[in-house]
Amino acid sequence: MKKLLLISSLCCLSLTVFGQTGILRGTIRDGKTHDAIIGATVQIMGLPTPMGISTDVNGQFELAKVPAGSHTIQISYVSYKTKSVPNVRIESGNATVLETDLSEDNQQLQEVVVKAGRTTNTEIAVVAEIKQIKAMAVGVSAQQIQKAQDRDAAAAIRRVPGVSIVDNRFVLIRGMGARYNSVLVNDLITPSTEVDTRSFSFDLVPSNIIDRMIVYKTGLAELPGDFGGGAIKIYTKRRPEQNFIDVGLTLGYRDNTTGQSVQSHNRGGLNALGLWSADQQLPTSFPTNSGTFNNLSSLQRAAYARLLPNNWGLQQTTVSPDIRFALNTGRRFDIGNVRLSNLTSINYAQTNQFANVDQRLYDNSAVANSTAQQYNDATYSRGTRLGVLHNWSARISPLFNLEWKTLFNQLGNTETIVRQGQNYASNNDVLAYSERFENRSILTSQLAGEHTINELTKVSWIGGFGYTGRWEPDWRRARYLRAIGTTDPFTITTPIDPTPTETGRFYSRLHEYVYSGVANYEHTFGNPTDREPNRIKAGVYYEQKNRDFSARFYGYNSVGENSLNARTQDIGSAFTFDNVNGSNGLTLRDATRDVDSYRGLNSYYSAYVSGDVYLGSRTNLTLGFRGEYNDQSLRSTIVGVDTRLVSNRIFSPLPSLNLTYKLTDRSNIRLAYSSTINRPEFREIAPFEYYDFSLLANVRGNTTLTTATIQNVDAKWEFYPSSGELISVTGFYKHFRNPIESLLLLNPNVLSYTFMNAQSAQNYGVEVEIRKGFTESASAFLKNLTLVGNLSLIRSRVNVGEVVKAPDLGGAIQEYRGLTDAERPLAGQSPYLINAGVYYAAPKSGWQGNILYNVFGQRIFAVGNVDVPTIYEMPRHVVDLNITKNITNRFELRLGIQDILNQPVRLAEDFNRDGVIGKDVTSQIANADQNRRQLRRGSYYTLSAIYTFGRRVIVP
């Protein structure tokens, strides 16, 4: 009995001791640099059930419920010697702190440097990178893109604080227009993808090739100086972590589009690949000079017209579901001591969009909503994209890495608009057609090298080539009229002097070549094992951009007494060869002007130097200076003479300062100042006039535009509670001199846009970002939950100045006084932006899901004038839902619903000019505001299936 009681007592005592637990927390750092080691494994040895954890972005860890007693702690990380710390005592109810360093394993390190690379595409890695960047920056990882099921860079980047999207493709940072952004792909400046505006179309970059995106909101000497909102760096995937092949197929259904019967036109050829047949091009036999062509007889001009195909007829078609296909491969192999890696991604998409667009023009009398023109546009567009990413990486030695990266996109868009409505000013019913096809080819290719000279010095370089091609072959436009209230047949308009707003055919092509070279140098001073060694960076950047643009427009004229018969026939019959005869029907006239073609040359040179000055263990000051010289010229052949229309040579000194003060190991205060600029694009300075049929608007360049300068001041508090978590508050102020904005010109018939320099502007606001997890929660559900949200509140003010230089309707530069409001918000500036998301991921069950929300505040779409009120783009509340299920280790299904609320895209005129668009836009009271344009895109449903051959990898 005594033995039994003794054994029972010992068992109870052992159970009591085992039930007592404590906490082990600490930080793991590099033994040389004392930098935090992210992802190091900390294990408690000798326990019946193993306990372990990985360090977070700060190198910190915390293990709860560790049994009381003395333990041996083992710490390991790739390329470091495993370390054991014996006799670490854990006391019940108390926390034990372990601070230690790891030493490099030189033998293992050499092998790892040759054959592996650091992870950059996870949320933790991106948060760590942002924390180490001297400037204020935010980012999105491939891992987060995968969770959100974003299809392209445009959808992914709107998760970033202070970022909103226009037209599902253009990025606005801190509410500022797309022209104030600088975009770099793999550290090379990317030219504008648009002809008419300075914008990069983010929808061209499919999400599955993105490694990460970093948005810099303050200047650094190593960043290009041409930005005001932000500099956006898109990094494509570099090398695979393992060999893999995966394929993905996505089917998409859009409300009001898929399954609907619509009118479209055919371009022939390989239209499914974004190409077109040869007969769509203007025959080379056409005279290149409009005067020569127009001096021909009507019969001769009609003979040329009959060389153009009669493909005006529309076909009724049923819209099929959208389809997207992706094939991704990754390979790693060795040739001797060289590790080679290849990533190849092929993406194909065919998408459809139909919308009924309601739009109006007003006579702007003393009564609101006095409609001058009213239309409904049945708009259908079919888009195709073929994209290829092909990257090679070679680890030549531990000190030399070589990469070749190529990204190519082939895009086509077939758009058909059937317009019906009334022009009350001319007392006519209107029936109009637009049959447009746009083709774009965009190529970027670069060769990059990274050299480690020694542990103190690094050198990197990039050589790049870029090409952008854009064609609009045979854009056909026709306008029919008849008197309002009659049943007369519609009659095609054929004015003697054709204009782009009337019946005719438009052709344009653009070729742009970009050559780039970059070299960077980094050197560490003093002892590199210091906690915060002093560093200096320097570099040079060269870019030459050559653009060749040409456009031709031919309008139809009526000839002879019987031309009315041809002009009253339907769109498929009016332009037959019998009707285009030059005697009793139709003929052609060349309305092209000399300035409709131009050649642009831009040479850009820059150099920078920056240095880190560490003022103690907590304070870091980075000082930088960048000098940029830009030579921009534009030429056209005017009356046979090569004429320089624009010559801008500007040197811009751009200082920058970034100060970081570490309040604790988890929180910082940052202060920043930088001087940046904003240059006009070729299209903005070219006097060429482009007619946008869908907006009823002409767009014309302004040869007097000059470079804007911007002074930027920012302050930020940031706190990193734990791995992947973040709380930050940022305040900013910007002062502009000569900001570039769009401007409405006086035109009673259509809207005419141009570009202008205002005198000055101010922009200031605050941004708040929160990323919160619940890893310590007792609830299994909460442990798998992550909350992400950001809010931006912004105010801006523009001082236009007494005089505005802008072209008139004929293209001559005029000095306007009192043309527009003297003070107002900055064009494109939203007063608030909100992004929010709830993410759920349960790895064991294979389920993931999220619900995302986005909204922007009312912003100026086009600056008005004394006759036409300012046009605003109104807020849209956007809610997306995504669900993912891993069926097996190789098979995954994804369901997505985008834009669940399907709120209208709406442009409204500020009739009473109070800067606020009211809810009542239909009443006739004097202070009401006016709807300008409205449409609903439709909610979008997608179902994706992804299959991976071989080992499972994370595939965005």
From TrEMBL:
Gene3D superfamilies: Carboxypeptidase-like, regulatory domain, TonB-dependent receptor, beta-barrel domain, TonB-dependent receptor, plug domain. Residues 481-898 form the TonB-dependent receptor-like beta-barrel domain. Keywords: Cell outer membrane, Membrane, Receptor, Signal, TonB box. Pfam families: CarbopepD_reg_2, Plug, TonB_dep_Rec_b-barrel. It comes from the Bacteria. Its main location: membrane. It is found in: Cell outer membrane. InterPro entries: Beta-barrel_TonB (IPR000531), Beta-barrel_TonB_sf (IPR036942), CarboxyPept-like_regulatory (IPR008969), Plug_dom (IPR012910), Plug_dom_sf (IPR037066). One of its GO terms (cellular component) is cell outer membrane. Residues 138-222 form the TonB-dependent receptor plug domain. Belongs to the TonB-dependent receptor family. This is TonB-dependent receptor plug. It comes from Fibrella aestuarina BUZ 2.
